Amino acid sequence: MAGYLDKITQPWTRQHIQAAIMSDFRTVQKSIDQTEGGLLWSGIKELDDAIWVFTKSTAELLDEISIFSEKSKDIEFWHKTNEKNSEEYVREVKRKLYYCTSSLMTIVDISRAFNKKWPLEDFLDQRNKFFSTPGLHDFLQKMRNFSSHWRIAQANWIIKADFRNGTRIAKFVVSKEDLLEWGDWGSNGKKYIEETDGDIDIYEVITQYKKQIQQFYSWHKGALIDTYSSILQPFFEYKKIHNGLQNKLMWNMIFSHFNPDMNPYKYLTKYLSHNQIELILSYENRSEKQVDALIKMLDMEDFCDAQLRAKVMKAFRVSTTTN
Known about the structure:
- It contains 13 helices and three strands.
- The longest helix has 37 residues.
- The chain is elongated, with a radius of gyration of 29 Å.
């Protein structure tokens, strides 16, 4: 069902949004979210979420490799008696590698659809700039399918001892032979494997790609905001007005029912952060300046009319002659 605002030509004014709230408050946010800017911002947040999942999955994979790496330095880790224990670690590495590469595919799918609707002029140039390792992206895309049937073994761990420094380094690698036994890498993925010197260190590869994807999408988000600012600005203005008017109604209701015997300072922790409370208390107690600071901290400067301000002053028992 169309909301009140959907029947009004944009741009919407504060009066339009206020009338919409009075008509049917349930439809207002939906109407604002369905504006062009609202749909764009929703798409940006969806892409942000996908990148967060990839980043989280990547961190968990790298942590698991680090734990497995440390455990595998112990010779007893590979003993027959510890076979079940070691197999669990093996499965965790494999599972998290699958999650990591699967979340990468989600980013790819969302990004493709997103760029068709919200293109950027230099998208391809910037993508090639940040994803500077030829074939790495294609290799990791295919790694999801490869990892589902690949058996991790002791041979995938290379442990080197530095007797001079008294350290041991364990790396989790996959040999070219193991990789190329699978025939579905595609031309770019296969070329990446063939041109890599030695075995492929999964930790290094994932770390490298994680950095590239974070740098690229950081540029991408900034470029979108800059390029489509004229579309985003009205959405955020509508959202600000809507939130402000909703808060105004809420605070009017709260302070209309505020008992004169109640202590307003008792409720500060419900609405303000610790730092904000400290700032409030830096002003003279129950002063007009303190009330003004409170209204500002609640983001109500543009929505607190004389009637609401008088209610706040009364709750704090502030005299209008107080400096």
